[in-house]
Amino acid sequence: MECRRKKENKKSNSTFPDEVLERILGMLKSRKDKSSVSLVCKEWYNAERWSRRSVFIGNCYSVSPEILTRRFPNIRSVTLKGKPRFSDFNLVPANWGANIHSWLVVFAEKYPWLEELRLKRMTVTDESLEFLALSFPNFKALSLLSCDGFSTDGMASIATNCKNLTELDIQENGIEDKNGNWLSCFPESFTSLEVLNFANLHNDVNFDALEKLVSRCKSLKTLKVNKSVTLEQLQRLLVHAPQLGELGTGSFSQELTAQQSSELGSAFKNCTNLHTLSGLWVATAQYLPVLYSACTNLTFLNFSYAPLNSDDLAKLLVHCPKLQRLWVVDTVEDKGLEAVGSHCPLLEELRVFPADPFDEGIAHGVTESGFIAVSQGCPRLHYVLYFCRQMTNAAVATVVQNCPDFTHFRLCIMHPGQRDYLTQDAMDEAFGAVVKTCRKLQRLALSGYLTDLTFEYIGKHAKNLETLSVAFAGSSDWGMRCVLDGCPKLRKLEVRDCPFGNGALLAGLGKYESMRSLWMSDCEVTMNGVRLLAKQKPRLNVEVIKEESYDTQHAKKVYVYRSVAGPRRDAPPFVLTL
């Protein structure tokens, strides 16, 4: 490796020796900074190449593993994303692709020292997990988020063979949960675990094995269990691991004796380092008070699986003066959000999820009133995901006036095409207020009845926007033209069920090569339009997903992305690459 480095730098005029420059550049944390310094000159390019230890790939088809390993020979940590985000909404068929195995085969040869692998929306089989566990002797961290294709057998392979494992984080995956015995596969001598998350598994786990594992791993900082773990069992785990910083509890609804309740409260009280709390599956109000003593230093509460009512939430928030992030279900209603505004002055992120997005006759939920209440009491709020059943232009304008530093604004009015329910106007002025006021805005999700005026506002004012998600909105191709022409930093554009056609698609001819991806589904794009795009921009991968009732004229689902690897080699028959 040293010979290769010297050969590459034999004409170097750098002020610094190669090793010093590599050490300096290796200290950079930002991916953008690393990419920028590699463009300064050839010497800096090579130094950054050799010093890079981690890499993030936002689309697994934007580059091949062979190209990656040639570009960066010394990688220890890989973060890789696969399927488009709309796969979360079942818009991407099964067996679409994004299989990790071909990457692992190359990594085994080129990165045998690989330590971390973080995957999102990738297909991961049990065979791949076994290959991973056997091929990288110093492997330490595995994170799988929204992945599919594997079972607890694959997790057993990781537990059995990864002797230096510090992190096993399994979140929201399509996993086949065969049984809970995989936890017993960790060797009795194994003590290195720092992060363990299996919150979304469904079956009972081997609690004896879990308890022994937790008691052995004295450096454990994050523990998130599934809902099969009872309150009594949780108490025993907390006694073994009072050092926890992040805790995801199991079910919070069993019957406890007074003594058991007291012991559970004491166990929480001893967790003085706790800053993140989640889980609380089917929380019962009578046991929530055991949490109060552990709430003092909490910065993140995730109640997305706990349909609390407003009173229970309010009683808990009184004890959380340092809260910065809060995820709740809309069962808290506006009254609960009023409590957020009253007790959480440091709040920076709020996510409100629907208890049942498909029940149109549901009585509870949140409205513009709760949104305003939060904005009045939480001036630092800069990230919001807000599912509601009604909204007004004036309310959104008030929210952003109170909180002008939004970087992420995702408003989801659950009835498609809904107008301002008080004035019956389009919701154009609401999102106009957002982009005019929030100059730091990076991500925006639109909803409600919107005309092209909204997109004109976005193109004119949202100069820092990077990701835009649009559904059931717009009047004509002009709207999308405004966005593509006016947002210089746009990287991801996601569009579904909109009246945008070929004119809108082709408006981005000069833009798509600087973006990560474009997704358009159920719009008015034709195959002729897509073919023209592919012909004029051969460096883009232009794919059409064919449905069972495939229309040879209409391109129902179009996925466009830049790639240095060319067309992908594993496209299934229902993916047409142009």
UniProtKB/TrEMBL annotation:
Residues 14-53 form the COI1 F-box domain. Its main location: nucleus. The keyword Oxidoreductase does not apply. It is found in: Nucleus. InterPro entries: COI1_F-box, Leu-rich_rpt, Leu-rich_rpt_Cys-con_subtyp, LRR_dom_sf, Transp_inhibit. It comes from the Eukaryota. Pathway: Protein modification; protein ubiquitination. One of its GO terms (biological process) is pollen maturation. Keywords: Auxin signaling pathway, Developmental protein, Nucleus, Ubl conjugation pathway. This is F-box domain-containing protein. The lineage of its organism: Eukaryota, Viridiplantae, Streptophyta, Embryophyta, Tracheophyta.
